[in-house]
Amino acid sequence: MRLLISLLLLVSQSVFAIPQIQHWQTSNGANVYFVAAPDLPMLDVEVVFDAGSARDGKKSGLSMLTNGLLKEGAANLSADQLAEKLDDLGAKISASVSNDMANVKLRSLTKPSLLEPALELFELVLTQPSFDATSFERLRQQTIISLKYKQQSPSSIVKKAFYSAVFGNHPYAQLSHGTIETVSALTLDDLKQFYKRYYLANNATISIVGALNRKAAEKLANKIVNQLPSGELPAPLPEVAALKKGQIIEINHPSTQTKILIGQPGVARGVHDHFALYVGNYILGGSGLVSHLAEEVREKRGLAYSTYSYFLPLRVAGPFIAGVGTSNKTVDQALKVVKDTIRKFMDNGPSEKELKIAKQGITGGFPLKIKSNSDIIAYLSVIGFYKLPLDYLHKFNENVETVTVEMIKTAFQQRLDLDKMITVLVGKRS
Amino acid sequence: MYKKLGICVFLLGYSTSLIAGDVHEFTLENGLQLIVKEDHRAPVVVSQVWYKVGASYEPEGKTGISHMLEHMMFKGTKKHPPGQFSRIMAANGASENAFTGSDYTAYFQTIEKSRLPLSFELEADRMLNVVFIDEEFQKERKVVLEERRTRTEDKPISLMYEHFVATAYQNSPYHNPVIGWMSDIKNYTVEDLKVWYKRWYAPNNATVVVVGDVDPQAVFALALKYFGPLKASKIIPPYSRPEVKQLGMKQITVKLPAKIPYLILGYKTPVLNTIAPENRWEVYALDVLSYILDGGKSSRLSKNLLRGQQIAASINVNYDIFNRLTDLFTFSGTPTSKHTISDLQFALEDQIKQLKTTLVTTDELKRVKTKILSSKIYELDSIFYQGMKIGMLETIGLDWRLYESYLDKITAVTAEQVQAVAQKYLIDQNLTVGILEPKEKK
C-alpha cells in the first residue's frame, strides 16, 4: 500500500503538459488561438469581436441586442428552423456581451456528420444574420423585462450605480443590458449598422479547443469567418479618468440586507504590476474564506455571508471593487471594517508569511485553471483578445513567484486612493 | 429521415463507450463507500464527501440545521483550530466548499492530484472530531442569517418559491426550505448541532467520490489509511413521511415589493426512488416530456410561448428524477408586458392539454434524445459534475449505475408513454399554483 502511495506522489511531481497554444491569422485577418484537446469527442469555438458595451455610444444596450439577435435566424433560416437544426445535431450556439467583448460560441460533437453541418450553421449566424424585425422586437421586450427584474435585485441596483459613479462619462459607465429608456429607443437599423461596423474578420479573435488537429482547425477558422469583410478597426477606447473625490451614494430599497460596493478605476490588462495586484488582492479579498476581508468581516464578526475584492482588468482601466452584504442594522460597522481592512493592507501590505502562503496557494492551484476544455478556451479568448503573451500560462507561476511584499505595497498605493473611493449602498436604513 | 436516424446511432455509439468511463467501487470495513472515476486530462482531482443527511431529514422546529452544521464543519476539530481547514486548503491551491440539499450534505475539494492525501486526512478528521465552540457557533449563525437574507429574503422570486413549495407539500419534509425558516435558525443551540452531528456523521453514512487523474487502487489505499480507522456508528434512517394524497388544486398568491410578476405551476410526480420498479418507465417518460417542453431552443415552450405567441418573456420547466421523495414537476416564468399571469397560465395549460390529446412527433422525440445524449458527453468536460452525479445518486439511495443506464431508458421512451404520463400526472388534483404579485411599497 505504502508503495502505491509514494508512487502516486512521485508521478505527480513530474512536470505536466501546459496546453500548447497555437496561433495564426486567417487570410482575411482574424487571429486564431488553438489548443488540441483530443480526449473528448467535442469541440468548442469562440469568436470574440471588439464590440462590447464600450462600443454602445449613447445607445446603451446596442451591443447586447445586436449580438443576441445573431442566433435568432440567419440566411434563409428562421429562428425556429435554426433552433431545430442545432438541436438535431446536439450542438449549441450561445452569445454574450461584456464591457469589451462580444462573444459568440459554438459547442459541438466532433463526428464529421454532426460537426460539419453545425459549423455551417455557426458560419451563417456569424456572417448572414437575418436581423428580422419580429425577433428584434421580441428580444427587446425580453430585455426590458430583464431590466425590470434587475430593478428588484439589490445586487443589480448597486452594480449599476457603482459603474455609473466610478466611470462617469467613460463608456464603461454603462452596463451591457442598457436601460429601459435606451433599449426602448433602439431601432433595427441601429443594430444592422453596429453589426456592419464591428463584426469584421480583422476585428475577430477565434479560439478553438477540441478533438481536432491543426490542419482541421485552420480549415475551420477560415470557413467560419471567410465571408466576413475586413475593415477599419475600432478606435482605441478613451483612457479612464481618475476620480477627483470620494462619494457615498445611498439608494433606498425594500430589502432586509444592504449591498455595498466600494471602489474606483483600477487597471488595464497587461499592466506591468499585474501580478503584484493579482497576488495582493488574492490576500486582501480574493481567496474565499481566508482573505483579510473574509477574516475580518465574516470569520471574526459574522457580519456577512459574502465579502470580497477584485481588480477587473479591461482594455483600459477596469474597476477595483470591494463588496459586502450585511443586515441593514450592521451597515456602519461592516463598512468601517471593510475600509479599515483595505487601509491597513495598503499601508502595510501582507506579511512575508502571508505572501509565501498565498504564492503556494496560487501556484499549487495552477492546474485547476486548465482542467477542462471550458477553462482552457476562456483563457485563450482573454490571451487572444488582449494580446497577452502566448506563454502567459507557462509563465504564470514564475510571475507569481517574483512578487514581493514591497511590490504589492507599491502597486496598491499607486493604484488605489482610499480617500477617493466611490461607496454605493442599497438597502433600507431606518 | 435517414440522416437523423444516423445521428442517433452515432450518438449511442458515443454513449456506451464514453459515459461508462472507468469507475471503481470500494467499501471499507467501517461501511464507508468509495467510488473512483478516472479522468486523466489534467493533473487534478476532485474529492467529494457525501453524507446521507439534509433538510428532508430534519424535524419541525430545527429546519435548516443540516445546513447550519455544514457551516460548523469548518469551525475546528480537536486537531485543527477554527478556520484552519480552509487555510490549509487555500495554501495548497484547493478550490473547496460545501453544499446542502434536501437529501444530502456534501463537502468537496478540487486540488492538484498529489495533494489528495491532505484532502482525505482533513475530511476524515472532521467526520468525527468536530469541536463545537459556542462562540464560533454564535458568529456562524449570524453568517447563516445573512446568507438567508441574500438568498431568500431579498429576492422576491426565491421568497415566493419558498411559500409555493410550503403550500404544495402538506406533510412531506420537502415542505421546508433547505436553509431553514428564519425563526428556526435563530433558535438552535450549539447542543442541537452537536446532537445532529453525532447522529448522522459517520463513515457508514458517507460516500467518498473521487474523480480525476488518479490510480483507483492508490486512492483505495489512501482511503484505508485515513478513513479506515474511523468507527462506524448506528445510523437510524429518517422516518418515512410520505406526502399525503393531494385532493384538489391549491393556489397561493404572494404579494411583495417587486417589479415583475412570476408564475409557477407544480404537479406532484413520482421519481425513480418512489416508484415501483415495473413502473419506472413512467419517470423516464416524464423526463422526456420535460425536454419536449423545455429542452433547448427548439422545444415547444420556447417555440410557442417565447417566440410564436410571445406570451412569455422567460419560461422554465424543471423535473428531476433523482430525488429521495416525491417531487414537483414545475413550469415557471414571467409573462411579456402585453400579457398577464392568467394568459401565461392559460397558455401553459393549453400546452399540457396538447400533450394529453396528441402524440408528440417522431422528430421531436428524436431531437430530445439527441439533446440528452449530447449533453451527457458535454458533461464529461467537468470532473466536478461527474463526481456530483455519482455522489448524489448514491446518497439518495440509488445505484450510481442508474446514471449510465439512464441513456438507454430515455432512448426506449415512446410517444404513447409520454402521452400516458401527461394524462396520469399533469392533472389539476396534483397541481399547486404560485403567483408573485408585485406590490409597490415604500
In order across it, which strands form the biggest sheet of chain B?
A: 1-2-6-3-5-4
Percent in helix of chain A: 40-55%
Helix content of chain B: 40-55%
The main β sheet of chain B shows up as:
6 strands, mixed
Secondary-structure arrangement, i.e. CATH architecture of the largest domain in chain A: 2-Layer Sandwich
Shape descriptor of chain A: globular
Instruction: Please tally the β strands of chain B and state the result.
Output: 11
Give the strand content of chain B: 15-25%
Do you know the CATH architecture of the largest domain in chain B? 2-Layer Sandwich
Strand content of chain A: 15-25%
- Regions of chain A with pLDDT < 50 over 5+ consecutive residues? 1-14
What structural class do the secondary elements of chain B suggest?
alpha+beta
Count of domains of chain A: 2
Number of domains of chain B: 2
SSE sequence of chain B, one letter per element:
HEEEHHEEHHHHHEHEEHHEEHHHHHE
Oligomer: heterodimer
